[in-house]
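Appendix C reproduces, verbatim, an entry submitted by the partner laboratory led by Prof. M.T., so that reviewers can inspect both the input and the predicted structure.
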Amino acid sequence: MPDTAPTLAGLIAFGRGAPAIPTEALPDDSPDWQTALTFAQEWVPCILNQLSPTMYTACVYNWSISSIVQWATDQPGQTYFATLQGIDGFKTANFVPGVVTTTSDESTSTGLTIGDALSNLSLIDLQRVKDPYGRAALAIMAALGTVWGLS
């Protein structure tokens, strides 16, 4: 059964699962785990926990992993996070001021229609969109629509 309340042990287990963060890159006793969990619990609206504790926990864990992927520093001799954050990874250090809506050149043109949820993203949301875990967290929150402000 999935966790119905976020815990440090649960986050570490989650991080070792699908994201596959290796122990060598982020030991279990690293303070980054707790920092990411604390920040995620502050960012993810508590109303989600009242609607679905399981979805709240999934959202918090995904937001936490997104934070770790984007901001963690490597252990001595490791390059795991540098690779994830760099040009061969999610490019998390690149500034993205918004979502591209149209592009064209002399012979081609492309336009993307974006939903209101994407057009109203804050800077922190735009940062979260850069990796699959942040997108998963935003998707959970966006699925609830106006409960937390996205429509």
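The chain is about 50% helix and 5% strand. Additional entries are available on request from the coordinating office.
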